[in-house]
Every structure is written in structure tokens, then in C-alpha cells.
Amino acid sequence: MLEAIAFHRWIGRDGLKAIFGREISRDLIGRLVDRDPIGTGPREPRRGAPYTFATTETFLATFGMESLRGLSVPEQMQGGTGCTVKAAQGGSRWAMTQSLATR
């Protein structure tokens, strides 16, 4: 899920649902916001004005990135407990799991 948020820069729960084919719980989003790899962004310009989410400086520091410009187009965005980000610089890979949300 972190990969999807990082790749899209700003994305709401509906956008995440479209990617993963299932609802993304508010609790999971809340835990990630509390632990700071993601933060809230501007509200979507539609009825109900839901929040969007984006990665934070903590996300960048955790995965040794200076900016999101280092992300390549994802090979795939996996649902479930984790996903992978491929960094363009050096081709390194980091496994990102929901462990950030459960610490």
C-alpha cells in the first residue's frame, strides 16, 4: 500500500480500493498516519470531500530516499500485507509491509 501512495503522490481510499480490489480500512490508514510514513493531503474535490494521503519525510528517511523522484514505474502493486518499491537509483528493492502499521 505504501508503494501505491508513493507512486500516486496523492491518493484517497477509493483510489487504493481501485488498485487493490478491496476496501482499505480506516484503522490501517490511521495507524500509518500515526506512525508517520504517510500523512493527510488535500481533500478530494467530490461529494463528502474525503482526504487524500501522501508519503512523508519519515517515509523517505526510513527507506533511504532523498525524494520520490527515485521511484520507477511499479512492476506491480500487490495487495495483501505488503508491496515492493523499486528505486531507480541503484535498482535497490525494499519490502514494505504492514509492520509499520502494527508497531
Q: Care to describe what's here?
A:
There is one protein chain. By secondary structure, the chain is α+β, with helices and mostly antiparallel strands. 21% of the residues are buried. The chain has helices at 2-8, 13-20, 26-35, 57-62, 99-102; strands at residues 11-12, 38-43, 51-55, 82-86, 93-97. The strands form two sheets. It has a three-stranded antiparallel β-sheet. Strands 4-5 form a two-stranded antiparallel ribbon. It has a single domain (2-102), classed as Orthogonal Bundle (Arc Repressor Mutant, subunit A), CATH 1.10.10. The protein starts with a helix and ends with a helix. The protein contains five helices and five strands.
Layout: helices, strands, pairs:
Layout (H helix, E strand, L loop, with lengths): L1 H7 L2 E2 H8 L5 H10 L2 E6 L7 E5 L1 H6 L19 E5 L6 E5 L1 H4 L1
Antiparallel strand pairs: 1-3, 2-3, 4-5
What is this structure, in a nutshell?
This protein is α+β, with helices and mostly antiparallel strands. It has a single domain, classed as Winged helix-like DNA-binding domain superfamily/Winged helix DNA-binding domain (Arc Repressor Mutant, subunit A), CATH 1.10.10.
